[in-house]
Amino acid sequence: MSNKVVQAMYNDDDILMDAVKEVRAAKYHIEEVYTPFPVHGLDKAMGLKGTRIAITAFMYGCVGLVFSVWMMNYMMIEDWPQDIGGKPSFSFIQNMPAFVPIMFEMTVFFAAHLMVITFYMRSRLWPFKEAENPDPRTTDDMFVMEVIVDGNESELIAFLEKTGTVEIKVTEKH
Amino acid sequence: MSSHYEAPIRRPLIVGDKSYHDISVDVAAPVEGKANKLWWTAFSVALVAFLWGIGCIVYTIGTGIGVWGLNKTVGWAWDITNFVWWVGIGHAGTLISAVLLLFRQKWRMGINRSAEAMTIFSVIQAGLFPVIHMGRVWNAHFVLPLPNQFGTLWTNFNSPLLWDVFAISTYLSVSLVFWWTGLLPDFAMLRDRAIRPFQKKIYGLLSFGWTGRAKDWQRFEEVSLVLAGLATPLVLSVHTIVSFDFATSVIPGWHTTIFPPYFVAGAVFSGFAMVNTLLIIMRKVSNLEAYITKQHIELMNIVIMITGSIVGCAYITELFIAWYSGVEYEQYAFLNRATGPYWWAYLLMMSCNVFSPQFMWFKRLRTSITFSFIISIVVNIGMWFERFVIIVTSLHRDYLPSSWTMFSPTFVDIGIFIGTIGFFFVLFLLYARTFPVIAQAEVKSILKASGEKYKKLRDGNHE
Question: ipTM of this model?
Answer without folding.
Answer: 0.93
